[in-house]
Amino acid sequence: MPHRRGTPGFRRITWALFAAGLATFTTLYCVQSLLPALTEQFRISPATSSLAVSLGTAGLAVGIIPLTALSAVWGRTRMMTTSLFLAASLGIAQAFSPGFPVLLALRGAQGLVLAGVVATAMSYLAEEVERGSLGFAMGLYVAGNSIGGMAGRLIGSLVLDVSNWRWALAVVGALALGCAVLYRALILPSAHFRPVPPRLPALAGAVARAVADRGLLRLFCCGLLLMGGFVTVYNYLGFRLLAVPFGLPHAVAGLISVVYLAGSISSALAGRMADVLGRPRMLWATTLVMLAGVVLMLPSNLVSVTVGLVVTTAGFFAAHTTASSWVGARAATLGVQGPALYLCCYYLGSSIGGWLGGLAYGGAGWAGVTGYVGASVLTVLLLALSLRTLLPATSTTTPPSAMRAAGAS
Q1: Could you tell me which of 337, 47, 16 has the C-alpha nearest to residue 190?
Q2: Alpha-carbon distance 349 to 160, whole Å?
Q3: Of 158, 192, 226, which residue constitutes the final position of a domain?
Q4: How many structural domains are present in the chain?
């Protein structure tokens, strides 16, 4: 029987997946707080240093769809175990990088293997957890993701304040290894997993039909642009806070990442409010909140920057939650490969958008970042307004068996 909330098996599964999410996003985003140090060490521009973030998320974006299909053959727990231990090993190896190109190569490889966790975790939960307890289990996994994103930035900046970027990466790598060991000790073997060989024509057809749907295509663009703007803010805010007129120490600048917790709260609220207001209305409203936060961060005032960052973070996570849940519901009705494509676009936004944001910062400072992120979010707002007239999906074009054969999660 599937595991129910309150049972020992349920607790083991949820805490194992919490550890997996923590390890994944701690390693993925820890380098954001290290970008100023990398810029100084290797004498490169902020945009070039941001490739340490972009290559990691690019690897994840590239790996999402193929590893989703592979996990349907190889097994969920085996995929996640291998991914977590490989990612931790690559994280520790990054501390010994002889140069920036080697560091980038290791970051790209790490992102690729981490796709094995992102592509598999929710499928495992859906298979092994009783439906009435699934929402709580998913919530704990997402909490691990968001706390991991915050912890990576915070740990990196705290270690950097007393040592250097190499030690920061080593500490994060050791933490990821500990999380991998904890995950392996707690996770229960799949009881309801049935291996299904992936059929590439079915997978390609499901992807093609998803892209052909105008509603899903607009939602994919929303995810790409939202994430591109959000990562840009966190990539280059450290440069701003370390420079005049703020002149904050690394540790203090890193502490501002605690506002990342606002995203956990807003995600939960957005899910509930969408049930009342509807996703079309929630998407443009939450995007407007993010745009307001970006504007609030423009003045060179620490209070305004902090409040603006809280508003930006809350708005982003609420908008992302709304868009991704909309993709999931519409894709399920149409019988297409939607969620994996959304995640692919989402992380491509982090890779490409974050790097382009560095060019804006290098050219015009924080005013350039404000203009660049503001334009991205404004485009999402226009897309969200256009989605208000989107007709509901009413037909299923691919039977469930074909989707499972394609490796859909």
Answers
A1: 16
A2: 27
A3: 192
A4: 2
Same domain, 139 and 231: no
Check whether residue 166 and residue 207 sit in a common domain.
no
- Are 165 and 309 found together in one domain? no
pLDDT in tens, 316-362: 989 998 898 898 889 878 878 788 899 999 999 999 999 999 999 99
Q: Could you write out the DSSP letters of every residue in 69-131?
A: HHHHHH-HHHHHHHHHHHHHHHHHHHTT-SSHHHHHHHHHHHHHHHHHHHTTHHHHHHHHB-H
Concatenating the DSSP letter of every residue in 208-228 gives HHHHH-HHHHHHHHHHHHHHH
CB 361 within 8 Å of CB 297: no
pTM of the model: 0.89
Q: Which of 128, 158, 192 marks a domain boundary?
A: 192
pLDDT at 65: 87
Supply the range of the domain harboring residue 22: 1-192
First CA to last CA distance, the chain: 20
Residue 129: φ, ψ to 5° = -110, 140
The SS3 call for residue 49 is: helix
Amino acid found at 242: L
Give me the residues paired with residue 3 across strands: 129
